[in-house]
Amino acid sequence: MKAYDMENSAWARFSEEERIEVEEYNKTYKEFLDTARTERLAVKEIIRQAEAAGFRSIEDVTSLVPGDKIYWNQKGKSAILAVIGENPLTAGLKIVGSHIDSPRLDLKAAPVVENKKIVYLKTHYYGGLRKYQWVCMPLSLIGVVYTTAGEKIDIALGENPNDPVLFINDLLPHLAKDQSEKKLSEAIQGEMLMPMLGCNSTEEKTKPAILTLLKEKYGIEEEDFASAELEVVPTQKSRDAGLDQSMIMSYGHDDRVCSYASLAAILNAAKGSHTQVSLFADKEEIGSVGNTGVQSSFFQDFLAEMLALQGHTEDLSLRRTLRHSEVLSADVSAALDPIFADAYEEANSAKLGYGICICKYTGARGKSGSNDANAEFVSKIRQIFNTANVPWQTGELGKVDQGGGGTIAYIMADWGCEVVDCGVAMLSMHAPLEIVAKTDAYCGYLAYKAFFESK
Q1: 233: which DSSP letter?
Q2: Residues 101, 283: contact at Cβ < 8 Å?
Q3: CA distance 206 to 120
Q4: What is the dihedral of CA 245, 246, 252, 255, to 10 degrees?
Q5: Which residue of 258, 293, 408, 413 has the fewest CB atoms within a 10 Å radius of its CB?
Q6: Nearest by Cα to 392 from 360, 431, 367
Q7: How confident is the model at residue 203 (pLDDT cuts 50, 70, 90)?
Q8: 225 contacts: CB under 8 Å, gap ≥ 6
Q9: In angstroms, rounded to a whole number, what is the distance separating the alpha carbons of residues 155 and 143?
């Protein structure tokens, strides 16, 4: 099979046996999508699978030898898995870095409001989403609340088929003359993204009745929202898309299609000469900030802890480890969309169903905010994929002056690592429901596994 082939899709290049493997892989991927609905749930599921495969918390080990499997849980919202290789850590790591947060609506600290006897939840959108796409669809409320007494309450409203759902209203077309003349970015504004929570009351006000229901159902008071992390996400679970079932429609493909591929790869890869590391980061969609984002110290703290377990406590060892490490920044890319072809430069756009996408640079316009990978490292990645017969392609994020975007690549490059963006190309990125090709999802797994196993 030719690894780089822009004339034939990956499906056309796969054997019948490989096509069966594509379907089997995507069954488990859809299960992950439907379980890991938020970054907290993703970490929980990642660690569950890791522990089942023999990984132990780094806090429970006193030394490290080749073959050891360890993990780091960063405040329940980011995670790292590592398989210790034969070479010393200072020889460098093989790192696949993905993120597990996705665009969504977050509840404000004082979210419950009433207007004309209808009770709403006030939200603040998270990440680069298009606000008009989030109206008139079933929505779930997922997250945690810490009560005045410090008790943790898990919320998953809308996830059970018998649950009620939330809903953000839009203006009926009969009265939308003025709204229809506005720009897409202005027709639905941020403060209008308010899910309806209820309208029944026998009293003058509805809000007290809703607060009573919250107390009865979850044991929470209005003040408890101040110490909560509650996310509004689409209720719709993953579904096969297309008559030929060649695609998956789901919330959160960005970036769970890459994070699951990284998880599956590190769980199944043969032990390598270099230590293999899967990073699952939070906060990428808002700049990798906070103490669960990659701009914080937690990843380097994890490396320092590993080095200490092998007897290296000096700062120079950490710097050497990073300098000699190689990273695939596992984040999604934009697939060419023929319906909106004017936004793309076709010759340099990835295509749906043609394999994992190598993106040498991201950024905006003049490559601002980009890593811009070195040619030597891109050459090495090409050789790894070609040798392992992994279908791959190249691409970038649309026309030069059309827009742009970024990943965690530039942050890890700042540490001295060799980094290139390498992820699954998709359609409808950052929409409530996104589309990926099953073959591309599987190629992500093949690519990361081949990278882990390479010298």
Answers
A1: E
A2: yes
A3: 10
A4: 160
A5: 413
A6: 360
A7: confident
A8: 107, 108, 109, 110, 111, 112, 145
A9: 5
φ/ψ of 380, rounded to 5, equals -65, -40
Torsion angles phi and psi, residue 218, rounded to 5: -120, -10
Give all domains of the chain, ordered by start, each with its CATH number. 10-102+251-453 (3.40.630.10), 105-234 (2.30.250.10)
Q: Which segments of 211-287 are extended strands (E)?
A: 228-234, 239-241, 247-250, 275-281
The reported pTM is 0.96
Residues, the chain = 455
Distance CA 145, CA 152 (A): 6
DSSP per residue over 131-159, as a string? GGGGSSS-EEEEEEEE-TT--EEEEEET-
Between CA 432 and CA 236 the distance in angstroms is 9
Nearest to 258 by CA among 47, 46, 91: 46
Rounded CA-CA distance 326/276 in Å is 10
Q: Which amino acid is at 427?
A: L
Confidence of residue 195 (pLDDT cuts 50, 70, 90): very high
Apex 438 CA angle, 331 and 418, nearest 5: 25
How high is the pLDDT of residue 49?
98
Separation between Cα atoms, residue 74 and residue 95, nearest integer Å: 17
Supply 149's token pair: 């007494």
Return the SS3 of 129: coil
Task: Give the per-residue SS3 of 274-312.
Answer: CEEEEEEECCHHHCCCCCCCCCCCHHHHHHHHHHHHCCC
pLDDT bin (cut points 50, 70, 90) of residue 362 is confident
pLDDT digits (tens, 9 = 90+) for 113-170: 999 999 999 999 999 999 999 999 999 999 999 999 999 999 999 999 999 999 999 9
Q: Around Cβ 129, how many Cβ atoms within 10 Å?
A: 19
